[in-house]
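Format notes (please read before filing issues)

Several people have asked whether sequences and structure tokens are stored in separate files. They are not. Every record keeps both together, in the order shown below: the sequence lines, then the token lines. Line labels are part of the format and must not be stripped during preprocessing.
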Amino acid sequence: MKTDSPGQVKTAPGQSYWSITWRLTWLYTLSASIMLIFASGFLYWVLIATLEKEDEEFLNSRIEVLDRILRTGSKEALENEIDLENVGFTNSQYHTYSRILDESGRTLYEAPGMDREIPSAVFPSAGRSKGKTKRWLSASNKTYQLIAAQAGSDDAGGSTWQIQVALDETNEEILMNQYERYLAAVLLIGILASAAMGAVIARRGMKPLVDIAKTAERVTASQLHERIGAAEWPRELVSLARAFDGMLDRLEDSFDRLSRFSADLAHELRTPINNLRGEAEVALSKPREEQEYREILASSLEEYERLSRMMDSLLFLARAESAQAMLARSRIDVRTEITKVINFYEALAAERKVPVTCAGDGVMDADPILFQRVISNLLSNSLRYTPSGGKIVFSIQDVDNGVEVTCCDSGTGIAQEHLSRIFDRFYQISPSRNPKTDDAGLGLAIVKSIVNLHGGRIGIKSALGEGTSVQVFFPA
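Then the structure lines:
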């Protein structure tokens, strides 16, 4: 895996993917930026609208004041109002300029210098009600808010005037420009701060995944005991941590079983190979009679058959534990299948004077060939360790929505310390238990694999000198 940049991981030519940390940072920054821009834009709009409304209300109030003075007919009061309208308000944001026109449009009164700065022609049309405002930029680069309105008597034939008022908004414009610059700076700083905080938050949020990755890097063939643990992780990662630990448990168990299997296999193969090698060395040590060679070849053939049976059993176990193992299930009569196996071993049982019987009935869905192999391995194992005069009994009964088959013998029995490992591959009790056996310790392991393959369970009870009882349960 190759990395192009801190936030981009390149997996293959032409393909690049952003890391989750950078994606979270980008999304956090984007969402924070949108919120900041929206909030700032809304506040800016509210400020502009408020100022415009205040200016408009101030201009309309100015129109009303001048209208009331005109109605009184006092020219002196009108001149004083217009000439002195900004006196004492040098620091105020409201600097106004007023003009009074007669019906013909001739200027009657106006603020000093207003004719040079703001011509009457630039004002909007005047109405009887409150006038509409107009924004205008003068030649001196000053911004004005303009308004015009009709004033005077409402009676027919009465005098009417046109009032024009201009509000200087230059200082307000400068203030808004400064506000815009401050707002842009705040937005930029806010976005950068959001990106920095997003990166910190994303990295802290992704730290558990980094720790999981570090734990995974420490896992080797000799360090399979490493575990993540789910106690300190966030709730969303608990299931991932548990699944990862479960995977490590399975890997460690599989690795341990593989190691034991390899060691046991090497040990079991060594004996027949050494026997074959010893017999060959003896045969070649000096010339021998034809009968001696025949005996050596017959003994070697027995070892070959033992090796062949061992390989067949190992191959079966490998297939049975594979995820691809398939069962050819069919409806079988349990007693009929057991009777077939008993009939096959009838001659051997008669030779050893060990009667084999079967009691009970049951029907279930199972692979008939594999079920017969289960019964065959149980029966051959019981015959091997049951002395003459003993007996072997198979019993069938329906339990827990399934069928349980019990193989009970009156053989030598098994000590309690061996029962926990009796189904392990190549596990054998002391050879003194039956020195004539050629069993490699795979029979009961095969039985357990077949039962597990069917989703069943297996158990064993035994006592020295009293016999052994193996219970096999198959779900219906």
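For reference, the curators noted about this record: Residues 330-475 form a domain with the Heat Shock Protein 90 fold (CATH 3.30.565.10). The chain has eleven helices and 15 strands.
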